[in-house]
Amino acid sequence: MKYIVAIIQPSRLAAVHEALVAIGIEGLTTSEVQGYGRQKGKTEVYRGTEYTVNFLPKVKIEIAVDGGMAEKACEAIRSAAESGKIGDGKIFVLDLESALRIRTGEIGAAAL
Ligand SMILES: Nc1ncnc2c1ncn2[C@@H]1O[C@H](COP(=O)(O)OP(=O)(O)OP(=O)(O)O)[C@@H](O)[C@H]1O
Ligand SMILES: [Mg+2]
Residue 107's beta-bridge partner residues? Predict the structure, then answer.
């Protein structure tokens, strides 16, 4: 199993969600976060003026998937989140050791 953590532009959440549902992802977690990448959040242009902000609003999406779905999920996220501009975001993929559905006690991929 893999745990996918994607940081995307908030405006792309609906498109990314739709893409994930389309490939059969059944559960996910989102949160509003703040962060910066290589440009250190300094390239935001507002009304024609470039100004300095260190932390920019992003959305974090977390998904636990069976190993075989990880690549498909990453590609779905990437293609739906991409605008081609800086700040489009990142996808991190972690090995997931275990999962457990609290209601039934199911473990592993059956719990996803
Ligand atoms: N190394 C990192 N570790 C954790 N979070 C990161 C890292 N790099 C970026 N992020 C998160 O992803 C968000 C988007 O990053 P961003 O897309 O600007 O990365 P980048 O490396 O600067 O690429 P680009 O040049 O396309 O802008 C950041 O605001 C931050 O929340
Ligand atoms: Mg950046």
Answer: 100
Name the residue at shortest CA distance from atom 9 of ligand 1: 37
What is the mean predicted confidence (pLDDT) over 79-97?
Answer: 96
Count of CA atoms in the C-beta half-sphere (13 A) of 100 = 4
pLDDT tens, residue by residue, 73-87: 999 999 999 999 999
Q: Is residue 54 within 6 Å of ligand 1 at its C-beta?
A: no
Q: How confident is the model at residue 51 (pLDDT cuts 50, 70, 90)?
A: low
Query: Residue 36, exposed/middle/buried by CB under 10 A (0-12, 13-18, 19+)?
Result: middle
For residue 76, give the amino acid letter.
A
**Cα-to-centroid distance, 36 and ligand 2 (Å):** 6
Domains located in the chain, CATH noted: 2-111 (3.30.70.120)
DSSP state of 85: S
